[in-house]
Hints:
Elements: E1 2-10, E2 14-27, E3 30-45, E4 49-65, E5 70-92, E6 95-116, E7 118-121, E8 124-139, E9 142-143, E10 154-156, E11 159-174, E12 179-192, E13 195-202, E14 209-214, E15 219-230, E16 235-246, E17 252-262
Antiparallel strand pairs: 1-2, 1-17, 2-3, 3-4, 4-5, 5-6, 6-8, 7-8, 8-11, 9-10, 10-13, 11-12, 12-15, 13-14, 15-16, 16-17
Amino acid sequence: MPFTHNNEAQANNGLSQYLNLGFLYHQSNLMLGTMLSSEQNSKNSYQDFHFKQNSLSLSFFGFLPITKNTWIASNITLGKSTLPEIRRTSYLEHTNFLESSHTKSKQLSANLHLGYNFQLQENVLLVPTITYSYSRIKINDHTENNTIYNSGSMQFKDIKQSQNIISAGLTLSTQNQPINFYSTLKYNHIMSGDKVNIQSKLNQAQNYRSTEEKLSDKNSIELSLGSSIKLNSKVTNYYNFNIAKSKSEKARPSFAIGIKLNL
Length: 263
């Protein structure tokens, strides 16, 4: 039964703390598992937008070899989040106003992976993969307010968004060593869901206005570098650095440190 805890920092001034508790079952070559994950007090900051998020999710995953080197894996995750603090800076008549609100959200995601293991050396693997990913999120309606001047405060209807993504990746890794390393280069293409429809209005207005906002570029490249250090038979320390880049967006680096405990 694996138990993990990690902290993750992101380039957009974000900090997240994760606590995971999982169960793994082996039967011959088949592997099945489930994991309960908690993300507490995630802080995210962008230029004029800040929010905190607490999340709880439950994942089910499986791994099945097809041939000696070919395998498929899949996972499904159900989650819910509370956003106790959402802050947006509005500008009116050369004055900045801090708009605040709070809401909740629900998430569903599913992934299907197909991979092939090339054994380069006894403890070195090269693994090309193809992945299909689906995700859906619903953010509940919420209303902004500030205590000084309410004309810039907004009301938002429920926001619903679905994405379909296809990815191709290549991973080089070591295995069965006290210290293992890996590097992954991945290309992501958003087949649908790169934009989201938002219905909003000023608090004093009668009618909602519908706008389409771009979430991200359709194509991006992602690089991950990581290592795991086996401290003893039950405890493993791991590190991960990830950076994603698309044509019109700035690079988005993140760094994670964690501890895995086998109970």
